[in-house]
Amino acid sequence: MEMIIKTIIIIIVGVAEGMKVRMSHYENGLAGIAAEYQQFKALLHRNPQLMDTLDVINITNDDVDAAIRREKRSARNESCPIFTNSYLQKAESPRERSLSPWKFVREFDARRTPRYLLKAKCLCDGCINIVTGRETKHLRSVPTHMRITVVKTYKRKLCYETANIAIGCTCVVPSRKPTAGKTAAPKSEKSKKNCYKRPKANLS
After folding, report:
1. CA 203 to chain centre
2. Which 3 state secondary structure label does DSSP give 9?
3. pTM higher than the cut 0.70
4. Residue 189 — pLDDT band, cuts 50, 70, 90?
């Protein structure tokens, strides 16, 4: 009986240690994505001319749902890279060598301050198979987000909002939740708003 109890304790400890290792890898992965985002922002700050090489996505007239639909359409038009030897020799940044590779774009909103935000866009629907070097649809590339506060203008109101900005992409197992009929579109998360009336201009 004592041996059985000891064996159970060893198994429980082993499972707990395994969970800690997996969480550590997950946290390190997110930290790496955040570091890549900050490093690229710093690079743009040092070399402003590089901004002209980035695609610009104008979402001024989009609501949140329209922006999600636009992102899905543009993602389908991107070419997922093939990890050949020549590609890997040229790929220098983690975003190019990631199994869910991404690129950076500039998102423009005339009603928002700041008007331009750096944003990541996944290049693949699936992920790169480490054996073949090609995309596999058995896994999914999804964006990793960071929350920031922005100011939006609505008619005569200034509103402080929380915006979710994609800073990179990561590879996940597809959801196994059973769905009836067509898959429902993801619901957009409403951002919190704190609005204030803009003071009228004094013409006297």
Report:
1. 45
2. helix
3. no
4. very low
Residue 171 near residue 100 (C-beta atoms within 8 A)? yes
CA separation for the pair 119, 141 (Å, rounded): 15
Spell out the domain ranges in the chain: 54-173+192-197
Q: How many CB atoms lie within 10 A of CB 52?
A: 8
- CATH homologous superfamily of 54-173+192-197: Cystine-knot cytokines (2.10.90.10)
How is residue 14 written in tokens? 């082993």
* Ramachandran class of 131: left when φ > 0, alpha when ψ lies in -120 to 50, beta otherwise: alpha
Residue 49 DSSP one-character state:
G
A 10 A CB-CB count for 1 gives 5
- pLDDT, tens digit (0-9, with 9 covering 90-100), for 62-121: 665 555 555 555 544 568 999 999 999 999 899 999 999 999 999 999 988 999 999 999
